[in-house]
Write a structure and sequence with these properties.
mainly alpha; 3 helical TM bundles of succinate and fumarate reductases
C-alpha cells in the first residue's frame, strides 16, 4: 500500500531537524570567505588597471576603494584572509588524522574565529 503521508514529510536531512554545529558553520564560513577573497582580489586588480590607464579613471576607482564602503570591504577582506588561512591550517591538521574528536574540533573552530579577529585587528593597527 502506498504511503499517504509521503508529501507531508521533510526531505532528509532537513535544516529544521538538525542543530547547527560550530564545525559545520566554520566549514560554510570557509567557503564564503574563499569566494569573498576572490571578489576582493578583483577589486584590487580593478584598482591596478585603473592606475595603468589614466589619472582620471584612477581617481574614480581610488575614490571607491578608499570610501567608507571600500574600507569596510577591505577590512572584511583582511579578516577573510586570516580566517581562510587559519581554517586551511586546521584542515591540514585534520588531514593528519588528529583533532577530529568533537570537543577538539569545536575548540579549534573557536580558536580560528578568535585568532582571525585578533590578527585582523593587529594587521589594521600595524598598517
Amino acid at each position: 500500500m502506498a504511503d499517504v503521508n509521503r508529501g507531508n514529510r521533510p526531505l532528509s536531512p532537513h535544516l529544521t531537524i538538525y542543530r547547527p554545529q560550530l564545525t559545520s558553520m566554520t566549514s560554510i564560513l570557509t567557503r564564503i570567505t574563499g569566494n569573498a577573497l576572490l571578489v576582493a582580489a578583483l577589486l584590487i586588480v580593478w584598482w591596478f588597471l585603473a592606475a595603468a590607464s589614466s589619472p582620471e579613471y584612477f581617481a574614480v576607482v581610488d575614490g571607491v576603494i578608499t570610501s567608507w564602503f571600500g574600507d569596510l570591504v577591505m577590512t572584511l577582506s583582511v579578516w577573510g584572509l586570516w580566517y581562510h588561512s587559519l581554517a586551511g591550517l586546521r584542515h591540514l591538521y585534520w588531514d593528519t588524522g588528529r583533532g577530529l574528536e568533537v570537543d577538539t574540533a569545536e575548540k579549534l573552530g573557536i580558536v580560528i574565529i578568535v585568532l582571525s579577529v585578533v590578527l585582523t585587528v593587529l594587521t589594521l593597527l600595524i598598517v
